[in-house]
Amino acid sequence: MQQVWNDIKGLITGRRASKEVAKGRLHLVLAHDRTGLDGAKLQEMRDEITAVIAKYVSIDAEAVDIQIERVSRESTELRVSSPVRNHNTLS
Amino acid sequence: MGKAIVITSGKGGVGKTTSTANIGAALAQQGHSVVLVDADIGLRNLDVVMGLENRIVFHLIDVLKGKCSLQKAVIKDRRIDGLFLLPSSQVDEKDAVNEEQMLHLVTQLKKSYDYVIIDCPAGIEQGFRNAIAGADEAVIVATPEISSIRDADRVAGLLAAADIPTRLIVNRISAAMVKRGDMLSKEDVIDILALDLLGAVPLDDAIIASTNKGVPATLEGTSPAAMAYEVVARRLNGEVVDDVNSNVGFFARIGRAIGLSPAA
């Protein structure tokens, strides 16, 4: 009930309760922490994955995005998204 | 044979030592024999929180070095039956201790006391590994703040890897801030950390006053935090107890009492 009220208040005032911000940030931070990958390693992995994809399809290397999301204490999901340039529109 | 419980958190300053003192005092009040072990080598504080700093002659390192017997280093709290403290050293001798020694020490203590409550140092280095070495169970203390929860998650992972069953105390909850949406609720913290809740302790001025005096709040009276720690102690002892500050309504309480609705 409190949650619903806070949501409504947020909609009216345009202000998000700070605890919701905290929750969102924690989910991200914990997902990264749990993989045990530091920033440099993550960058290295991103570069390698980008290279592999680029070998097969035409992509914008800058647009490759890696997202790490915690599913539960036991499992964390790694998602790679990459827009592919359509072959038939290439000149 | 008693049970060894380590109180830990990862982050410093979230209430590990205060929780150790209050849980220990509450367990003793409930009729159990309890020894509190300060495993924070070089930065001892459990003695001052307990108000026993003037009574220390020997400490944990002296015992491990064979300078005195275990019995000689353990101080009896004269205010209440069944409460004892094994103080730490105030000199930095961290490297003087290893996990095997701690395991042996805790095993010895478990023979004489119902509960061995170990106050873990902050961090996840050797001091942490020493403190958890002899523990049968762990309690993670976390405040509803990002940094504390992040560190608690790290520690929870290490304890799971060490096969130590772990429960959570959410400390310093401000009901007013939770209501405003400016503080994570205990439910939020449980949800994020995926740990079982051992207790929720409200933010309470009485804790600071009791630390000033060196008298654990649970020995002093019925402040909200003291009552929460009494619930924690009972749950550690395997009893099923409701939260003190549960905001369950009157009719829900009656329904629960006569078995109409499930206990929260």
3D structure, described in words:
The complex is a heterodimer of chains A (91) and B (264). Chain A is an alpha+beta fold and 91 residues long. Chain A is 53% helix and 13% strand. Chain A has a two-stranded antiparallel sheet. The longest helix of chain A has 18 residues, at 18-35. With 264 residues, chain B is of the alpha/beta class. Chain B has one domain: P-loop containing nucleotide triphosphate hydrolases (Rossmann fold), CATH 3.40.50.300. Chain B has helices spanning 16-29, 46-50, 60-64, 70-73, 99-112, 126-132, 146-161, 175-180, 186-193, 205-213, 217-220, 224-236, 250-257, and strands spanning 3-8, 34-38, 75-76, 83-86, 115-119, 137-142, 166-173, 196-202. In chain B, helix 1 (16-29) packs across helix 12 (224-236) and helix 5 (99-112) runs parallel beside helix 6 (126-132). Chain B is globular. The A-B interface holds A 2, 6, 9-10, 17-20, 22-23, 25-27, 29-30, 33-34, 72-73 and B 145-146, 149-150, 153-154, 156-157, 160, 178-185, 188, 192, 194.
Estimate the strand proportion of chain A: 5-15%
CATH superfamily of chain B: P-loop containing nucleotide triphosphate hydrolases
**How big is the Rg of chain A?**
19 Å
Helix content of chain A: 40-55%
The gist of it:
Chain A is built from three helices and two strands. Chain A has 91 residues and is an alpha+beta fold. The termini of chain A are far apart.
